[in-house]
Design brief:
- It contains 15 helices and five strands.
- It is mainly alpha-helical.
- The chain folds into three domains: 56 residues, no CATH class; 64 residues, no CATH class; 178 residues, no CATH class.
- Strands 1-2-3 form a three-stranded antiparallel β-sheet. It has a two-stranded antiparallel sheet with strand order 4-5.
- The protein is elongated and about 95 Å long.
- The N and C termini lie far apart (67 Å).
- The N terminus and C terminus are likely disordered.
């Protein structure tokens, strides 16, 4: 036994390095039998594998190797590509990177026309990965960070007694729908606020919505319904890719979810088969889609949202009332007057909420 083994002492990294430096000068000129003894001592004191210890003692002494410089990757995507990516991200209502990746080939005909892309810029834009999108848009995402509110809370009393199906529905044809009433009360349920009655086709994710508003305020409801019948019906169904849950597996205390590749509701409708799909209607939607521009639709949604915010803030043409009106997940508190910049920032956040992620 060597002294280090008898004491049970384990060297730290700096001590092992000093010991290696000292023993390296003894090992090089030593004979074969002496090298074997030095090697046994080195392995016993440092806890190294014998082959690793031989490689250290036969190599250069510690500190003589030049430190390899860290290799830095060059900038692959220039400012023009990132500016176009940010413009698409904003017009598409700030989707997450996997969905944004699906937006680019889907919107490419309009991107070419709007930004006059060269072949090289188009190649770079289509080759950027979702991880690179997250990295490049991180600064802008922090500026758009928002707080979400909701009135529906998870129940604890009956959730273990009432069986619910929470994984994907095994539906292969259009025609099976889900209905949901979404509250737009923000962080407070006081006052007057609207709801969205959403009907979603399970297979294609095609969505139809109508506004329901209690206790009057017909102008806001009519404005919302006009939006739902036109721009907010066409934009998400024809141009906005979405993901569908494919499998959900519980692994211990965690749930692992896998999703299908993102695609639009119109793409799922075109790929559907069966008697429930009317091909004449699909062809009519295709012709309608060819005449539309997603960037123009996004701008129209913003203009109409601004009008809705004005109607909500001044429902009777009087002063701003102490109520809460909202068309998104956030509330729009109608209290004291705000500055123009505060109103614009608030309207911009609400626009991203009503159009969905």
């Amino acid at each position: 036994m060597y002294p280090a083994q008898e004491r049970g002492y384990i060297m730290n990294r700096s001590s092992r390095k000093d010991y290696w430096r000292k023993i390296h000068t003894r090992y090089q000129p030593a004979s074969r039998s002496e090298r074997r003894r030095i090697l046994d001592e080195f392995c016993a004191n440092c806890g190294y594998h014998r082959k690793y210890a031989i490689r250290l003692l036969n190599g250069p002494p510690p500190g003589s190797r030049p430190r390899r410089a860290r290799r830095r990757r060059g900038v692959r995507y220039g400012p023009p590509v990132l500016a176009i990516l940010q413009a698409v991200w904003e017009a598409a209502d700030y989707p997450w990177s996997v969905r944004l990746k699906a937006f680019l080939p889907e919107w490419m005909p309009w991107i070419r026309r709007r930004f006059r892309l060269s072949a090289e810029l188009e190649r770079q834009l289509l080759s950027i990965s979702p991880r690179s999108m997250d990295y490049r848009l991180a600064t802008h995402k922090r500026a758009q960070r928002r707080r979400l509110f909701g009135r529906t809370q998870p129940g604890t009393l009956l959730k273990h007694h009432i069986p619910l199906r929470t994984d994907r529905w095994d539906v292969q044809t259009p025609g099976f729908t889900e209905i949901d009433l979404v509250s737009h009360s923000g962080d407070s349920a006081a006052g007057e606020f609207g709801h969205s009655l959403n009907l979603t086709d399970i297979h294609t994710t095609w969505t139809e919505a109508r506004a329901v508003l209690g206790k009057g305020q017909e102008g806001v409801r009519e404005a919302l319904n006009a939006l739902y019948r036109n721009e907010l019906r066409l934009f998400p169904n024809l141009f906005r890719p979405s993901v569908k849950l494919e499998t959900k597996i519980r692994v211990g205390s965690r749930v692992r979810r896998r999703y299908e590749p993102p695609c639009t509701a119109f793409q799922r409708l075109c790929a559907s088969t069966g008697t429930s799909v009317h091909r004449d209607r699909v062809a009519e939607l295709q012709r309608l889609r060819d005449t539309l521009d997603p960037f123009v639709l996004s701008q129209r949604i913003q203009v109409q949202l601004d009008r809705i915010f004005q109607l909500a803030a001044h429902p009777s043409g009087n002063h701003i009332r102490q109520s809460t009106v909202s068309t998104g997940f956030h509330s729009l508190p109608q209290k004291e007057k705000r500055s123009k910049k505060e109103r614009e920032n608030h309207h911009h956040r609400l626009h991203s909420q009503i159009a969905g992620r």
